[in-house]
């Protein structure tokens, strides 16, 4: 009989895996962490994130005059999730309630005690679909980490590395799990292939898959934390919810590194785990090709303020409430129903300077580097932040022009579909601009812009004062071709509130746990159909903590 080598084996060294390992080592447990990438990739895709976290009734909110509560947040969550599956949504519903309680309770203190701090301005992401009981955040809840994704990773990685020095943690990099070892209906370990070394390969770069050997690890429990399917376009298309969102886009770009391939979902399902809600996913409509890519098809998301004019591929304005930053999946459906897989922002220099923020820790060096002086220069001073300005100069999706005819001509040069008609585009913009002459308007987007500026954070740093797009004083004009950017898997391995994996018959799969995106960030789909943003890293933390504490208590 093969002897147990550790108290737990954690599959995946991303954020959820590090959190689970941190909790296990706090309890003195021995952990083996296996990951198919090299040591440079510790923290996984969380390292590349903007580091936003969903918090409820926080000190940051209260200082800005935001009145929030667990009750309001739960109403928003449930209205957004739209849970409608009796069996598959049983555990996601429980996770949703537990997560909102965590976000309104000890989440901030838990992270604060580990050294995490937040930017004082709270962001308002996913502003919603237009009804109080529907999708969206009623108030700003997006708390930007001072240090972005690398800082979220650091606060868990450092104590795990200290535990490694004490002999509690073993990292086994370039170990790809191909099978769960099951004995007597319980998970007792993993086996797979060792891959050729690539120690010098930089973080995020696509690594080789050359097999040089095999391995087997036995442990008291297995915790799977391997992420979703974000870079596996074939699997995304296979599970694409056509009836709900429309035909899967032909052209997709990747918001996550190449190793986010979803392999462990199938491996766990084959071993007997319950995999639910696989048609639920979260991809962005504001993707742009990275002019300086790190991984293949590397995409960056524009996190926009509400003022850019959003046109479909034919040059028609998207129907309300499909405005920038409001309802991701509804906007996806609106774009794809045209038969094209891209759309356009049309805006001004004034708008881009104040309203464009780019996803990714590397696209926000001021916040990532925790440099107050650089932050003041890039966010408050005249001109667009450096990374945004670089995209306007080098990005293949950007067109900058001093007049509308030149702008439309440039848009047609990079169009993947119909040629845009100048007269039509001018009519669409002029009609909108005519609504700026008065402080009141019937235009729903301008109403939304005015509403956003009632919040001091948006007025000061996020939302431009409403103005006419064709006013030369606010130029030059800018157009951005927006592509579908792949990102998050909202379904996954079904888990109970201890992050223990369930079987299809509703019983617990002994010895097997899952956390993070591979578990739909908890329960197999805690977000339901829609996410409220700032909930992905937090879901990794919450589910990873639950898994680590549950296994540590055995």
Q: What is the structure about, briefly put?
A:
The chain has 554 residues and is an alpha+beta fold. Helix content is 33%, strand content 22%. The chain has two domains: 4-228 and 486-551, FAD/NAD(P)-binding domain (3-Layer(bba) Sandwich), CATH 3.50.50.60; 301-483, Succinate dehydrogenase/fumarate reductase flavoprotein, catalytic domain (Flavocytochrome C3, Chain A, domain 1, Alpha-Beta Complex), CATH 3.90.700.10.
Molecular structure report:
The chain has 554 residues and is an alpha+beta fold. The chain has 2 domains: 4-228 and 486-551, FAD/NAD(P)-binding domain, CATH 3.50.50.60; 301-483, Alpha-Beta Complex (Flavocytochrome C3, Chain A, domain 1). The protein is built from 19 helices and 22 strands. The strands form 5 sheets. Strands 11, 13, 14, 15, 16, 17, 18 and 19 form an 8-stranded mixed β-sheet that branches. The protein has a 6-stranded mixed β-sheet with strand order 6-2-1-10-22-21. Strands 3-5-4 form a 3-stranded antiparallel β-sheet. Strand 7 (175-183) and strand 8 form a beta hairpin. Helix 1 packs parallel to helix 19. It is globular, with a radius of gyration of 23 Å. The protein starts with 7 loop residues before the first strand and ends with a helix.
